[in-house]
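Below is a typical protein record.
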Amino acid sequence: MPKGRQILRFERNLRSSGHRLIAGVDEAGRGPLAGPVVAGAVILKKFDFTCEINDSKQLSKKKRELAYEEILEKSIVGVGIVGEKTIDEINIYRATLKAMEMAIANLDIPPDYVIVDGRMKLVTKCPVKCIIKGDCKSMSIAAASIIAKVTRDSLMLKYDREYPQYGFARHRSYGTRLHKETLKKFGPSPIHRYSYQPVKDSLV
């Protein structure tokens, strides 16, 4: 896990400037071939976590789920979900922006500053700072990445029960070899992203 002081550097600097409601924002699901893109927004009320808070991709499933529960206990959390049909209509970048803005809007208390992973041109009522690889550098963004990832994974488990032939429980709809093989065999499901090339190829 990143050093405590290091991963809180952005939060400490913003607090020293008078900001108290700092929302970290991140997403899960830009790359998969099916299902929604999910964004999390997290305002940390406490920083004394017993679980590891880090980029969700760096954590095991068990660690993510434990962290998820502790984040809910010690934070204000908002989630935004944009489905595959909208992704096909407006593209994944705009859909991700929409999910992130929804997540911020769904916070019970509006933030006075937003820090977001990557280069995302968010439209908010408060200042926004983009941080490249922010999920490794900011505890708030790391927490948001965990919220987004666990939420999306649970949705994909639900879809696995509806469409068991695709193996969503195993690959969460990422473009693995297994997933591409099932696409060729069964064709796309109603939740696939038809604008993505591997899905287009399965229609031929």
Summary: The chain has one domain: 4-202. The mean pLDDT is 95. The chain has ten helices and five strands.
